[in-house]
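Suppose you are handed only these lines of text.
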Amino acid sequence: ILINMKIYNFSAGPACLPEPVLNATQKAAIEYKGTGMSVMEMSHRSEPIVDLFHETTSRVRELLDVPSNYHVLWLQGGASMQFAMVPMNLLSNTSTADYIETGSWSTKAITECNKVAKANVIASSKQDIFSYIPKEYKQKIDSKYLHITSNNTIYGTQYKVFPKVDNRDGCLVADMSSDIFSAPINVSDFGLIYAGAQKNMGPAGVTLVIVREDLVNNELDHLPTMMRYDTHVKKDSMFNTPPVLSVFVVNETLKWIEDQGGLVSIENSNKIMSEKLYAEIERNMLFRSPVAIEDRSTMNIPFVFNDNSMDDNDFLQFCDARGLKTLKGHRSVGGFRASIYNAMPMEGVDALIKAMQDYEDR
Ligand SMILES: *Cc1c(COP(=O)(O)O)cnc(C)c1O
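From them, the structure of the protein bound to pyridoxal-5'-phosphate can be written out as follows.
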């Protein structure tokens, strides 16, 4: 049976994409720019695809106001590969880096760093199930970088103010997989930013890396070629066959962001959407937020029943029947999680709030 009902996908990732992006992708999957070929069939050396990469990079530079001494790279292997590439490229076997552990993704970044060099975990909120972002810590004097996760997708915490790096030779490195393009950022506060596409900018398969040029080391002969940033800088992200379709979708998503009025407007609507939902979580007798107020994310919003004898599945089924999908919380937190990335329309959040109110009434 085909049910004609609007579906809202609250998944943490891969996540919902704007409808105009999906429509443009459908078209390009059949035929790209009058070539008579699908975008998936075209050589990455062909002019339309080289142009596509340049166009996508220009949009990133424009939207984030990326200074000219930074490279913009399109890589594969997800944010998870950056967990390893960052220390491989920025550290030697005698240097170390500081890490703040704010969730499972930070933990994985730390594990990978420790395989190739040494990570100093200078702060962690693990003991409190990552319900807040630690703000008291001492950075090591000779650390090459300080690594943070800007938004913790699973636990729903987000940096509102980024840490300052004490060490003059050090820099800030951020995994921004789940909040890149959710608000303006000052790129020059960072040495390196990376983000897998599948949360807030496209489908899986491509990872954005923005790296300051002095951090790109040309003397890493001991590293596999694919694992070196300088390889990808020299070859304009086309050292090997790149994920053209994923980059196409990212480009369409960035166009859509421009059409919304850019990152200031996007930030504004993200604020309105998340504040609405937090207000309902506070008001509703059934639910509460497990996250410290000052660190609450605008992107991923976990909430749980006040009374833990209540049945999570019953509320999930109630929502599912209304077209509100993928609201189950991560197994480490339980309860529910509404991921409301850029592409989630206000109507989706309103429908969820209505469901929470109707469930309370019932
Ligand atoms: C999803 C996610 C990752 C993992 O990304 P992959 O592309 O699957 O490797 C890493 N960090 C954060 C913050 C994430 O949300």
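What can we learn from it? The pocket of pyridoxal-5'-phosphate is lined by residues 13, 78-80, 105, 149, 153, 175, 177-178, 196, 199 (CB under 6 Å). DSSP finds nine helices and 14 strands in the chain.
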